Amino acid sequence: MRIQxxxxxxxxxGAAAGIAAPAIAQNKPLTIGFSMNVTGPLAPxxxxxxxxxxxxxSDINAKGGLLGRPVKLIYYDDQSNPSNIPxxxxxxxxxxxxxxxASSYATNMIAPAxxxxxxxxxxxxxxxGLAVNSEFHYPRxxxxxxxxxxxxxxxxxxxxxEVAAExxxxxxxxxxxxxDAEFPRNAMDGARQVIKRLGLKLVYDKTYxxxxxxxxxxxxxxxxxxxxxxxxxxxxxxxxYQAKSAEAGVDVLGYYLPPFSYARMQVIEQAVKATGxxxxxxxxxxxxxxxxxxxxxxxxxxxxxxxxxxQVMAVQFQGVNGNGVDQFKDPKTEVILWPKKYKxxxxxxxxxxGS
Length: 355
Hints:
There is one protein chain. The protein is of the alpha/beta class. It is built from eleven helices and eleven strands. Strands 2-1-3-4-5 form a five-stranded parallel beta sheet, sandwiched between helices. Strands 6-7 form a two-stranded parallel sheet. Strands 8-9 form a two-stranded antiparallel ribbon. Residues 1-24 and 210-219 have low confidence and may be disordered.
């Protein structure tokens, strides 16, 4: 049987397309490895962060993956226990041989991973760690944490005390206590500097052992859908997250950690695409000098791998009635007090616990 040249060309093109599609699907996955607090005291936040990362994984694979490869998250439950971290990260790097290495959530979990990552000379993308690199000065560390700037330890306290100092009568004394763990120690170091700068008197300054009464407590909000820097892309992500959060049994609103978990993956995505691979030298060099477009806004890093500019808000809950969650979708219940450029209302002062 004679096949005309045009017909043969169509058949050949069709066959090539049929071969190419499975070939792409069969490409070795690009792996991103991390531990996460799926159980233990930090699980309420860890599981929410994991859901956000999985949403990104689904989004990126729907677009064809990265560099023609499907993306696969490889993660292990660290049980919110820092002593589990070295073993898990050794496994991720030496056994799983992941292409990209990222952290669990929280300072206490990131710090013990640092020596392992440094020994392997890998680029490390962390999630909400406060000034972790101030002790290590590792040039391949990048923190998806809005507590940046030249004094990252102070960024938690700055807004709180700036607002307090403007009140009448002006507060004169401060009592401070915190858990005896990596994150609160760093935050309290920063608070002491702010207190000193504002001329306030520190009358009580103690730490206490971290116990079960602190399980799941969230103190700060770094992102809100009504903040001046919130984008349509950020609100679109939030809609995706909230559509899944109740069924997943995690933080229903997702204001605190999920946007930053998703944004960290966007930083990895953009760095891999721009450098054309997962070479750690190239990833670190690109990440150091680039401003990334993410769901939490533009993100750039300083020489310590912290955000170049801190973005921490001081907020006050007002007009909360009962325990209904939906009321917190109303901007009036969480008023932004500081920075002033994002201010949405005035502080209720002095504090009245009966109001």
